Hints:
By secondary structure, the chain is α+β, with helices and mostly antiparallel strands. 45% of the residues lie in helices and 23% in strands.
Amino acid sequence: MAGHSKWANIKRQKARVDAKKGKVFAQISRAIIVAARQGLPDPNANFQLRSAIDKAKAAGIPNENIERAIAKGSGQWGQDGAKWEDIRYEGYGPSGVAVLIEALTDNRNRTAAELRLAFTKQDGNLGETGCVSWMFEQKGVVTLAQLIEEEELLETLLDIDAETYEVLEDEEEPLIEVYCGSDRLERVAQALKDRAYNIQETELRWIPQNLVEIVEEEQGRKLLKLIDAIEELDDVQSVTANFEMRFDWMATASD
């Protein structure tokens, strides 16, 4: 998981920059709208909404934008008649790397066409549903923005029935990711909150079970260009791929 986590950390740093440019505002706002529409507009009573708000705050989205998105989802701010669907797309990138994509879209045909074009340009192909999802396992992930003594952290994880953790290197603040079963995410997050830990983000994430090693830099660059192109699409919420490569290739590609 270490190699994949390095890439996840680079993506986290890129997200900060993208958020300042407004690139992720629409994507996260859409997730808030959908969460507010599917449940109560109160984050204390709607875990999906609360998680989306946490992600928005971590990305630096202003409170007024968050409140406006909640209002739209609950019908208190104009009319947003789009019928958003949660759809998972799957495919293969360069070197046979499996790529799993989660999207919120109001037009399946448009989203599929845009994804197919992105894959084709980088020697990949968009596949059928189920072609790569078996290579991933969905986990709950709670990100803590603080450092904790290992003995204390291990004791806490045992108490709350979490599975494992990982310390991430971060330029701005120490981060710890706590992993748990997807069905336990809300309970684990609440238990950590009750213990006064500083929770930055709570999410469901697809974790690759096996990693493909990229040994040619050109193939690595094509793969990273593919991931970037997919992430640029408005309908895409997340992208996961089962690869590992030299850290300096990933860091250079993220500049």
